[in-house]
Design a protein that fits this description.
Length: 194
């Protein structure tokens, strides 16, 4: 019985690994680690995730833009590898259950392949050096999928991230860097909540 379970588990693992390599849907093929291409080898441009390309519009959110506290140890925009990132602005919005921090970014793909913000970067959002929890919010003006939109080379977009706020006094620091490179190129901005 144990051998049968081990064989079934091994077969399942092999099938799962095979499925990760290439996905086919309606004549298209997307290969991990490279550009998305159709069955004829033509590059697929733009997003393939419903809702990812929806507009990010901070002006639709009620509330005031948060003031900026100057960072002595960093800048709020710049090149990170082959990409440009700017931490633009932030607002606090209220839902029935909680207060949410909404941060907007500008992301430009200066590489030669389509790339999504969320596939490349870590965003650390902290108060008193403690990370605050991300939130998923469905509200006009907020697009929580904006970071997964595939952006073509030489194109730019707006991205939003949302977080639960429990401490309404302490400034919030936002830092963006490439995955696994916390000590590398980083952009930072600190927002005052009061």
């Amino acid at each position: 019985m144990k051998k049968l379970l081990a064989i079934i588990a091994a077969a399942s693992l092999v099938l799962a690994m095979t499925a990760c390599g290439t996905t086919k849907d309606a004549g298209s093929s997307v290969t991990q680690g490279g550009a998305a291409v159709d069955s004829e080898g033509n590059e697929i441009k733009g997003t393939t995730i419903d809702g990812a390309g929806k507009e990010v519009d901070m002006n639709k959110l009620e509330g005031d833009y948060l003031a900026i506290e100057p960072n002595a140890d960093g800048q709020s925009d710049g090149e990170i590898g082959n990409y440009y990132v700017s931490i633009d602005e932030a607002k606090i919005v209220e839902t029935e259950e909680s207060k949410i921090l909404v941060v907007a970014f500008t992301y430009k793909n200066n590489s030669s392949q389509p790339a999504a913000f969320s596939n490349l970067f870590t965003v650390d959002t902290t108060q008193n050096q403690t990370k605050i929890m991300p939130a998923v919010v469905n509200m006009d003006g907020i697009n929580v999928l904006s970071g997964v939109e595939m952006i073509d080379p030489a194109q730019k977009t707006r991205v939003q991230k949302t977080y639960f706020i429990t401490d309404e006094e302490t400034p919030v620091e936002v830092a963006v860097y490439k995955y696994g490179e916390a000590t590398g190129e980083t952009v930072k901005k600190t927002f005052k909540l009061k």
